[in-house]
């Protein structure tokens, strides 16, 4: 069975709440309730424009600092060394924390040398502003390059991942580098919920299609950060640790994947395409 507490890398909890697009009181309330329910991890970013509300939720949940794991991300327009350090400090000030658990580069930025950005990211870690550091939306080639340059471990590559997208190459690269995979859009922005195969498999376990989509990922040791603005779905998305998909079911779900199955069509200007 999968542990609900953490992946084996960087102490990243296996399930967290994604907060992109959560705003105002809804954001603070969902963060608070998620942590109370047992989600160990909250995912935000300077670009989400909700770090203040995420911070409110963290304080309202009543947990001690060691009891939750918070990730934030630096936007690529702040990847020059001085900008990165300032962006990290501003995120901490909005969150009202002295340190985040994980600080990520949000998207690759080919306009700024990776060596400069990684140097600044490693420095921010050594300054004690982030317990761990990592990347997001890095291809195999970029991850190989980043790991070779960085003089601190890159514990995470946060990438789009769900049953409709084949990310096997980048997952293999992450495993090779001992970099945890954190899956964003793990229920395909809600698309998993309507899928016939996932619904059928879910029925056999008394679970929903969204729960099958999440279980499919965590059963491979991949951390998930589903987002919801609805309290009842917080509980639904968390209830994935009391059943197991058979090998045959895992293979059937894997057959839904497509190399072009992205649901997120954004890419930072000039970012390399997935290979
Ligand atoms: N690093 C990056 O570049 C990047 C990119 C995209 C996302 N992310 C992170 O990953 C998080 C999750 O990804 P996401 O927000 O793109 O997509 P997602 O979590 O796959 O899907 C969220 C959508 O699914 C719905 N939903 C949630 N639970 C459901 C359930 N049990 N049944 C049916 N529908 C359900 C939600 O609607 P309701 O609110 O109505 O429940 C929402 O519309 C983000 O919030 C963000 O933190 C990171």
Verbal overview:
It is built from ten helices and eight strands. Strands 1-2-3-4-5-6-7-8 form an eight-stranded parallel β-sheet. Helix content is 39%, strand content 14%. It is of the alpha/beta class and 275 residues long. The structure holds NADP nicotinamide-adenine-dinucleotide phosphate. The site of NADP nicotinamide-adenine-dinucleotide phosphate has 27 residues, from helix 9. NADP nicotinamide-adenine-dinucleotide phosphate binds next to helix 9.
Coarse morphology: globular
Average residue pLDDT: 95
Helix content: 25-40%
Distance between the termini: 32 Å
Pick out the low-confidence regions. none
Q: What proportion strand?
A: 5-15%
Strand and helix layout:
Blueprint: E1 16-18, H1 24-37, E2 41-43, H2 51-60, E3 69-74, H3 81-95, E4 100-105, H4 114-126, E5 130-136, H5 140-149, E6 154-160, H6 168-177, E7 180-184, H7 196-205, H8 209-218, E8 223-224, H9 231-238, H10 247-254
Parallel strand pairs: 1-2, 2-3, 3-4, 4-5, 5-6, 6-7, 7-8
Helix pairs in contact: 1-2, 1-9, 3-4, 5-6, 7-8
NADP nicotinamide-adenine-dinucleotide phosphate (NAP) binds next to helix 9.
